[in-house]
Amino acid sequence: MMRPLLLALFLLVWGHAPEIARAGTEDVRLESAVDRALITTTDELIWTISLRVTAPYKALQLPEYGSLISGFRVVDFSRKGPQEDEDRWVTELRYRLHADVSGSYILPALEFKYQGADGAERTLKTSDIFVEVSAVATDAKGGVKSGLRDIKAARPAGYDRRWLAGGTAALGTLLVLGLGAFFWWRRQQRRSRIIATSPHEEARAALEELKNAGLEGEPKEFHGRLSRILRQYCEASLAFPATDRTVEEISRDLGALGGWNGEARATFVDVLRRGDLVTFANHRASPEECRVHLGTAINLVEGTAPQPIDPLDKAAAGESVI
Among 156, 188, 212, 278, whose Cα sits 20 to 30 Å from the Cα of 99? Predict the structure, then answer.
C-alpha cells in the first residue's frame, strides 16, 4: 500500500519541478532550464536559455543552440531581448520540444564565450539536463494512476429482471442506431467536403490569403505559415505524412512515392529548407525573398494540380461523359 503512494509522491515532486543548470559571474550569467524533468510522449517540454548581464555587457549576443538538440522534435522557437530587468539585461531563447519515443534524454551542456572587462576571453559552461520521457499516462494532478476502482453501488432488492433486460435491450438498440446514423452523417459530410474543395484549391486559397496578409516584413511568421501550407498540401495530395516529419526525412522518403515528378519534389524540399533557415537559424529574409519563395510555392501547387479531362478524350476512350 505504501510503495504506490511513495512512488506517486516522488513523481509529483520531482517530475513537475523545473530542472535548472547555471554558470557565470556577478556580471555575466548563463542559465539553461526546462519546465519539467519528467514528461510523457503527449506532453511538450519548454527549454529556456537565458543570459543575464550587467549594463557594461548588454551588447553580448546569445547564439542559437538548436543544432545541439538531439532526440526531441522542435515544435516552436522564439527569442526575446535584450530586455532590462531591474539592474540586469536579459536575453532569452525558448524552445518548445516534443519527444515521440519514451526513454531518457539529455539536453547538452552549453558553452558561451565572451570578452571580459580586462580583455581576456572567458567561457561559461552549464551542466547537462536530464529529461525522462514516459509512455505511462498520468492523471490530471500529475500523479501516476493507481488503477484502483470505485466501490460498486449497492444493488436494490425486489426489482423485476424482465423489465431490466427489456430496458437494456432497447437502450442498446437505440445506441447502435444512433451510432450508425452518426457515422453515416460523418461520412456524408466528409464526402461533401472532398467534392467541394480539392487539396490544390485549398492550397491556392491559403497561399492567396498569405500573399494578402502583408507579412513580408515578418519573415519568421511568413515562412512558418508558408511551410505549414505546403506540408498540408503534400499530405492531402500524396497521403504522405509531411506535417509530422523533418525536412531530411521528407527528402529521404518522398522519392519513393508517385504523383509528383522529380522537379516538383526538389522544389518542395527546397522551399521547406529555406523556411527552416529563417525560422530556426535566424536567417533574416528580405521582403523580396519572401515574395520569391511565395511565387515558387504558387508555381508548385499550380504545376502539381490535377489536369481536367476533356470529355472528348473520355468519349474516345469508351468512358461515359455523363
Answer: 278
